[in-house]
Design goal:
By secondary structure, the protein is an alpha/beta fold. It is 41% helix and 16% strand.
């Protein structure tokens, strides 16, 4: 999230949710620049340290060294050549025109995840807290924590924002309904696990088969063997995913690989299912974050 200041009002409010590859390509064509003589970039706010959310700060910092780049401290910070200004829960960021954003620490998806509440409008910028029509990954190996995630959902719901602006997917215009659905779904799964254990299913395969009865059978072997998302993708699927990240259309991919567009579409459907992504862009973002592709 970036704020441009043209004394004394906000000129542009820009949400950046592009992958590093897309940002670098865009930068090579037309770097973000000040569009009027007295405007300047003042603040860049990052919701968390995953690649698809924080790597765009690097070219921004280079292009606008006077801008303040804000982020909640996280493990990846030391790997990025960015002069981060640390955020804390409850901090107030005052932007141009005296607009105020309240920082809310919302861990669970990532330890350093935050949301930003614009109190005047009731709008909350929520990063990866929710994605309309999809679920949010809680990756334990990356510091994800389901208990913290549920607490974050509860906290945001209690604040009763008017709308949510996620980093992926459409605007959420009825936050209470969506947040409640997220909480209910997670608790339903928790209850199913408990019931499976009570019924004598004591290992992961038995529990999974009893709970995920609607899972595509083709995905179950990878699920049961505990493979991560990188292992679940075939070599061809990773190849296609890399080409999608490079900005290619289905027709472009088909031409490059000498296969039909229908075959490409079939591979894309399998990629979305395996990565639990709702769109191609979402799949690319997950793949970049998990280092499935470069």
């Amino acid at each position: 999230m970036s704020f441009w200041q043209s004394n004394p009002i906000v000129a542009v409010n820009l949400i950046l949710e592009r992958s590093p590859h897309e940002l670098q390509r865009a930068w090579s064509r037309q770097p973000v620049r000040v569009v009027c003589s007295d405007a300047r970039l003042t603040h860049v706010l990052v919701t968390h340290g995953h690649h698809d959310h924080s790597d765009g700060a690097v070219p921004l910092a280079r292009a606008h060294p006077a801008a303040a780049l804000h982020k909640y401290p996280g493990a990846r910070d030391r790997d990025q050549p960015v002069p981060w200004q640390p955020l804390g829960d409850g901090d107030v960021i005052v932007t141009a025109g005296d607009e105020r954003l309240i920082v809310l620490h919302t861990p669970g998806h990532a330890p350093d995840h935050v949301a930003f509440l614009h109190e005047a409008s009731g709008t909350m910028f929520t990063g990866d807290l929710v994605t309309l029509g999809s679920s949010v990954m809680i990756d334990i190996s990356g510091g994800g924590d389901l208990r913290q995630y549920l607490a974050s959902l509860e906290r945001v719901r209690a604040l009763a924002p008017a709308r949510l602006l996620p980093a992926h997917g459409p605007i959420v215009t009825d936050p209470h309904v969506v947040l409640t659905a997220y909480l209910d779904h997670r608790r339903m799964r928790e209850g199913q696990v408990i019931e499976a254990l009570r019924a004598g299913r004591s290992d992961v395969p038995a529990i999974a088969e009893s709970i995920y009865d609607d899972l595509d059978p083709a995905l179950m072997p990878a699920f049961l063997t505990g493979k991560d998302q990188n292992d679940m993708l075939t070599g061809r699927e990773r190849e296609i995913l890399q080409l999608l990240a490079d900005g290619m259309s289905n027709a472009d991919v088909a031409g490059r690989l000498f296969i039909s567009q229908e075959t490409v579409k079939s591979h894309v459907r399998h990629i979305l299912a395996k990565l639990e992504a709702d769109t191609r862009t979402h799949a690319v973002a997950i793949a970049l974050r998990e280092a499935i592709i470069d």
